[in-house]
Design a protein that fits this description.
- The radius of gyration is 21 Å and the shape is globular.
- Helix content is about 85%, strand content about 0%.
- It is mainly alpha-helical.
- Helix 10 runs antiparallel to helix 14 and helix 11 runs parallel beside helix 14.
- The chain has one domain.
Length: about 425
């Protein structure tokens, strides 16, 4: 049994990692061209847009989409999906009203007035993000990891293509990259929704009595998981908003380049590991010994993969950014060097934290995310008011968040060795 778990686990990681690697390769190859087509300020515009849509993408399905994985019967899982889709439509409509009438004020508050005209596309992006994530959960449940990988490759490829074409031919500046991002999100959704709907009768979307049962059954997801994930997302993107207000959109653009070159590969690889980890953990959730073995294997594999890369990157980051992206982006290399430790800790903690869901520890997870948000705000603001230095601001942020990720790693080990509640075993 242990050998079979090991085989399935690494095969699933391999499938998802292949798609991740191809997607990231496309992003990395096109980045040196984009840094010559667009300025740091242009990158700052699209960074603020993507941060807003990512945060709102947490809300759009109420995190009910996570429950798709927990239903054993297809009919029940389909009703959970229908519920998530209904919430996505409703919340996207509300956002349309908000951004139609309030986008100018939002852009002024962020000190990024060039963003105003492009905020009208936020509701569409948010809807696509939410529905794509729900579809990923569905195909994860069915073990169709190749389809998930295909959608990721399609998204990054189309985004890169549109960004380059518009950068050459249309003077849209940062807006061109927003159009590219929206096109990529659309392709990812199409690649998943087509096989989902193919061969099925029209999916009924609505909050009828049977669907509302699942809203009650999985109420912990919108009550605790949603606020926790929302706080986590705000914490993740907080530097974009605060750095923009403190230092301007150009610094935000430099910060975004570190996200493209470092955070995206780390996050996508971590996401690939997490998808496989969820599947294997849920299949063995009634056996604490099996789950703890999976925890140790995942942690050790992540350390063996990430630590050498961290050390190498720390040594060569400034030189690498100067060589590949040009002198205008040299400061981004020094920023990436400071942030490298945080990226490594997040890479280790992200897949393992799923055990909080399975063990019904949403309340504890929520408290930890509140603490993380508070520490991130303090880590960013205190160094700024004390030193007025970008370097110290980034160091404060890294120290505060890394300590929370360390706790997550340790705590996940204890929770993995416990038998889940009957609710999740049945």
């Amino acid at each position: 049994m242990a050998q079979q778990v090991k085989s399935d686990f690494f095969r699933n990681i391999g499938i998802l990692f292949t798609g991740t690697a191809i997607s990231q390769l496309v992003t990395l190859l096109v980045s040196p061209l984009l840094t010559r087509l667009y300025t740091p300020e242009d990158f700052g515009v699209v960074a603020s847009y993507l941060a807003i849509t990512a945060i709102l993408g947490i809300i759009v399905c109420g995190r009910i989409d996570h429950a798709i994985l927990l239903e054993r019967r297809d009919g029940s899982a389909l009703r959970v999906f229908s519920l998530a889709a209904c919430l996505a439509v409703l919340i996207s409509f509300i956002l349309t009203v908000v951004f139609t009438f309030g986008r100018a004020e939002i852009a002024i508050a962020l000190k990024n007035e060039k963003l105003a005209d492009w905020l009208i596309f936020v509701p569409g992006s948010v809807f696509l993000i939410g529905m794509t994530q729900a579809l990923i959960h569905w195909f994860n449940r069915e073990g169709k990891f190749k389809l998930i990988s295909l959608s990721r490759v399609g998204q990054t490829s189309v985004t890169a293509f549109i960004n380059v074409i518009l950068g050459f031919w249309l003077p849209l500046q940062g807006g061109a990259m927003i159009i590219g991002a929206l096109a990529g999100q659309s392709i990812a959704f199409i690649l998943l929704v087509w096989p989902f709907l193919r061969g099925r009768v029209l999916l009924k979307i609505g909050l009828d009595q049977r669907n509302s049962i699942y809203l009650t059954k999985y109420r912990n997801f919108p009550l605790f998981t949603l606020p926790a994930d929302l706080i986590n997302s705000i914490t993740m993107y907080l530097p974009i908003f605060i750095l923009g207000v403190m230092f301007g959109p150009e610094v935000v653009g430099l910060y975004m380049l570190t996200q493209r070159v470092v955070v995206m590969p780390v996050s996508m690889l971590g996401s690939a590991i997490a998808e496989a980890y969820k599947k294997e953990f849920l299949s063995g959730r009634s056996n604490p010994e099996k789950c703890f073995i999976l925890y140790k294997k995942t942690l050790l594999w992540s350390i063996a993969t990430g630590l050498p890369a961290l050390l190498l990157f720390y040594l060569i980051a400034p030189w690498l950014f100067l060589l590949v992206f040009g002198e205008e982006w040299n400061e981004a290399g020094r920023m990436a060097q400071i942030l490298a430790t945080l990226y490594f800790m997040k890479f280790l903690a992200s897949p393992l934290s799923y055990v909080f869901y399975v063990q019904s520890k949403q309340k504890e997870d929520f408290v930890l995310h509140v603490i993380m948000l508070i520490m991130s705000v303090l880590g960013l603001l205190l160094p700024y008011f004390m030193f007025q230095s970008l370097e110290y601001v980034l160091m404060g942020y890294v120290s505060s968040i890394s300590s929370i990720y360390l706790y997550y790693i340790i705590r996940a080990g204890f929770l993995s060795n416990l038998k889940p509640p009957v609710f999740f075993v049945g």
